[in-house]
Amino acid sequence: MRRLISASVIFLIALCSPHSARAxxxxxxxxxxxxxxxxxxxxxxxxxxxxxxxNNASSFYKYGFMRNLxxxxxxxxxxxxxxxxxxxxxxxxxxLEVTEDGHPINYEQGSGYGYSQLRIGEKDVPLDSGEHxxxxxxxxxxxLNFGAARDTLYWNSNGHERNAPxxxxxxxxxxxxxxxxxxxxxEPRVAGRGVSYPRRPETTLDRIDDTxxxxxxxxxxxxxxxxxxxxVTWPSGHIHKPKLxxxxxxxxxxxxxxxxxxxxxxxxxxxGPDPKPGTVVTRYDPPxxxxxxxxxxxxxxxxxxxxxxxVIAELAVRGCLRVExxxxxxxxxxxxxxxxxxAKLAPEEQRVLALLFEDWxxxxxxxxxxxxxxxxxxxxxxxxxxxxxxxxxxxxFTRHAGIIMVGVLATFxxxxxxxxxxxxxxxxxxxxxxxWFLFCGLxxxxxxxxxxxxxxxxxxxxxxxxxxxxxGTAAIAxxxxxxxxxxxxxxxxxxxxxxxxxxxxxxxxxxxxxxxxRKTLLxxxxxxxxxxxxxxxxxxxQDRLNRINPADQLLDKSLSDPDRFLSYAIALEVKEAxxxxxxxxxxxxxxxxxx
Length: 595
Prior knowledge:
By secondary structure, this protein is of the alpha+beta class. The chain is built from 15 helices and 22 strands. Helices cover 42% and strands 21% of the residues. Strand 9 (145-146) and strand 10 (150-156) form a beta hairpin. The longest helix has 33 residues, at 430-462.
């Protein structure tokens, strides 16, 4: 009887022990259950589902429940599988769902190097002592390591930065269906990082058989700052590695500049090509009722420093002023001219003549880059442009400014939409930097197109004037470097595709804008006349112009013997020493575009 009673007691204890263990786990403080399911997709991304049950964990989560996703180099510490330590290892996640006890809950993801932090629920409010079941679903990009023969997944499920113990941890890895179980190699581990926090005797680690072929491991009594991890390798060829892996999985962003490009292309076909030039006949005079500045406005579509130089040359030709060069500057003196001569001047020439000598009978023009000279020279160019625009705008050509405006607005709209949807390590400044980069990039590109390309060509043709272009060129280089710096920051904080997408918008707009310019019928006729006059200047008058104004005597002689076509030679960029020098002097001045 005594033996029967003892055996019955032992049987009852054995029967009740699993239930007691479960009850102890349920009453334990910390994380009672932590299951991670990692599904490897054929497109090289991961889909992760974490189910975390905490109980009596208020002492561990005094400021709300915090989950550090195991994507940082601190958690992915095993160099055999993840390579050398990098502060930013390039892994990016996108949160799909966060719930508490089956209901959606607010969460806040960190940024910068706290990108892996996920704060769930109310901020700075201690977690209460009850039981909570959290489910977190997210996708992971760039976490797989691809080899020539085998691909590898290393996943440290619970993470290193954790102070709460885990009573039961399960890590399941689901590979694509084509991977055979015989070809898979697995290395499970449960312990702390490196040699720190070694596995304790009471910590168990077992594999759970699964009929679906998934790789599932279970561990119990996982201590704080310890984790269950798996390194799984399988033969290459089952995962389709992205062709442009460096761009990540948001390459679809390039569809935005492609759509804007398509808009401009459709507009270009709708407008139709510019008719071919007609028969060019050499002309011995410029087009009727078109001044030298007007000719440049017609040919280049801008009013710039060369336009200003052409106006000054024309005023000198007409005997309205004297130009005396010296030490890189120009002294302009008012000459007494009759009213009939001044009445024959073009409106822009009359206006500049009045502005030049509104205070003194003589002034000095300087190419210095200080604010006073830039503002003064820009003022003259503005008034020239205003008069030309009043008489000639839309008469000779049209830029289809409305279409360009729609394209620019579409650019900003698409870029800002993508910036608001951006997902990356730190997207806090994405919208601001998007606006700043596009605005400054378009303005800088427009300035280069309208001003500096022409100035650089003039300097290359004349062989002089490079020194005057250095300050402006240096400013462009500095500004361009700042833009490149911000692009690299966007590439690191958001993604490389996002940064390159923004950069692609600039050439799309800057290249297509000039391509939409079309001449009117009158514009075509006038352009043919201007080309015929240019041929006359180049073939007949150019040598004489250079003899009249030799470069080596530029600073020693004034325009005492001016040529009547000098202003047109300057406007049409026919090589001519005095005109090239004067145009370079004001190459950094304000540029006004037609329309």
